[in-house]
Design brief:
Blueprint (H helix, E strand, L loop, with lengths): L2 H20 L4 H10 L4 H22 L8 H24 L3 H19 L1 H8 L12 H17 L4 H12 L4 H26 L4 H22 L4 H20 L1
Length: 251
């Protein structure tokens, strides 16, 4: 890759890492850039996943204080995410993307509706649960996390948006704490997929490295930005990014 192409991939990584940490959907920035640089779609997808994985780790570190008290459910749900990420990555390598591509906009828009309804859900939940719960939310939330992780391993755009629609429905907790948990789950799924891609897929390592450096920087920027947002503003950002992602995928 030329120096200009590497600089473009680096910049895309910074933007994607920032967006992923705050809400998700950073892939919709970095993946098209890699395509524009001439990478084949499959190579661009796997290189992007590998490149964004370090940024996911960076975002989790940035939100580490919001994970205090969530250790048990974070570990439990992370195991579920790793499983789903591996399944999704295997599907990408084995089957065509047409079914997932058709479902993605619907999933994202549904997640946006869930995020908008979160204040109502929290008011209803507060009637029987007055304090934040360290629980995992039962099998329903595990099934949801697994499904999102499968999608995340396959493509991953707006994985965080979908999780931010699911988690508040089952886990009564502060939105920033749930955003920290979301970062752990996306990190787990993406790392699992990245390992499989590194072994089995055709990767553009210069592109992946440039995106990785950028995404690490973006993860820290995203943590600083995201932690300054009020729950209402964060919710608005989730919905805005989610709708934009759905429209972009439909177009």
């Amino acid at each position: 890759m030329t120096p200009g192409a590497l600089a473009a991939a680096l910049g895309a990584g910074v933007a994607a890492g920032t967006i992923n940490t705050v809400v998700g959907s950073g892939t919709l920035v970095s993946f098209p850039v890699l395509l524009a640089l001439g990478l084949p779609p499959l190579t661009a997808n796997v290189s992007n996943t590998i490149g964004l994985a370090p940024g996911n780790i960076s975002g989790v570190i940035g939100y580490r204080r919001q994970l205090l008290g969530q250790e048990r459910r974070a570990v439990t749900l992370a195991v579920v995410s790793v499983t789903g990420g591996l399944v999704g990555a295997a599907l990408l390598l084995l089957f065509p993307a047409s079914v997932f591509k058709r479902a993605v906009p619907v999933l994202i828009l549904a997640a946006c509706v869930l995020v908008l309804l979160q204040p109502l859900v929290r008011r209803l939940a507060s009637r029987w649960q007055a304090a934040p719960s360290p629980g995992t939310g039962g099998w329903a939330v595990r099934a949801g996390v697994l499904a999102v992780a499968v999608y995340g391993g396959y493509f991953g755009a707006a994985q965080g948006v979908i999780l931010m629609g699911i988690l508040p429905l089952a886990l009564h907790d502060d939105l920033q704490r749930l955003n920290a948990l979301k970062n752990v789950l996306t990190m787990s799924a993406n790392l699992a997929a990245a390992v499989l891609f590194a072994v089995e897929a055709s990767v553009s390592w210069p592109a992946a490295a440039a995106v990785a450096v950028g995404s690490i920087i973006g993860g820290q920027v995203g943590a600083r930005v995201g932690l300054r947002l009020s729950p209402a503003v964060l919710r608005a950002v989730v919905v805005a990014v989610g709708v934009a992602a759905a429209v972009r995928l439909l177009v």
